[in-house]
Design brief:
Layout: H1 4-30, H2 37-68, E1 78-79, E2 84-85, H3 88-112, H4 120-137, H5 145-170, H6 175-200, H7 213-239
Antiparallel strand pairs: 1-2
């Protein structure tokens, strides 16, 4: 959805997961000191499976919202009558949700099946994040300068998350990588909201001048503030 709601919805999903991970992984790291290791592993595996189920639900909500809003494509990809593609922006968002849904499916199968290779859940999550970045890279080509810039800042968080999650395939239960993933996911969430506010002004007020270089300078600085806020959240949750 090319509107504020279309950015607030994924932003909320990412923010919720990022905040949850920022609490979960410190607890998991501290619980390693508990003697009942097998019980601890089982509990956190169940949590991972529940996460996967929630991820699937969020993905389905996102796909349905993108397809069946009043001005959505309603599962039509190409119009033979007009000889044109139908709402490709909605289809790109749907594709993003699809891969996160597949990541959730792998999370669940990792818990219920013993034959799923260790690390496949992180690999699928890394693929989902990479697909998101690939889609958004080509999402704003030939768009106004401010639109391109604010989305390019989002790509920093996306591809950082994809790389760190890929490392988790080989460095499992690494608290630094896990907290970094939580941080960049929080940033994705807050920055999606920032994009929606800047481009669509949901609460009224004048629209941003998309050709003013000062706005680009401010938003770059603002993106750094989002990083600082995410680091603060991680530090607080890790030390509580």
């Amino acid at each position: 959805m090319a509107n504020f709601k279309g950015h607030a919805l994924p932003g909320s999903f990412f923010l919720l997961f990022g905040l949850w991970w920022s609490v979960k992984y410190p607890l998991q790291h501290l619980s390693q000191k508990v003697k009942k290791k097998s019980h601890r592993i089982y509990c956190f595996q169940r949590v991972d499976a529940i996460e996967g189920g929630i991820k699937i639900i969020f993905a389905l909500i996102g796909m349905l919202a993108e397809q069946f809003v009043p001005d959505g494509p309603h599962l039509y990809l190409y119009s033979g009558e007009n000889r044109d593609w139908v709402k490709l922006m909605n289809w790109q968002h749907t594709t993003m949700y699809l891969f996160y849904g597949l990541s959730g499916v792998v999370d669940v199968f990792t818990y219920v099946s013993q034959v799923v290779p260790r690390g496949l859940d992180r690999l699928m999550l890394s693929v989902a994040v990479f697909v998101e970045g690939c889609l958004f890279y080509y999402h704003v080509l030939h768009r106004p300068m401010l639109d391109q810039h604010i989305h390019s800042l989002l790509l920093i968080a996306i591809f950082s998350g994809a790389c760190s999650t890929m490392l988790e395939v080989f460095l499992r239960d690494n608290i630094v990588l896990e907290m970094f993933r939580a941080g960049v996911t929080i940033i994705q969430g807050t920055w999606f909201w920032q994009i929606g506010v800047v481009l669509f002004q949901p609460w009224g007020g004048p629209m941003w001048d998309e050709q003013d270089h000062s706005n680009i300078m401010f938003l770059t600085m603002c993106f750094c503030w989002h990083w600082a806020a995410a680091v603060t959240v991680l530090a607080l949750n890790y030390n509580l």
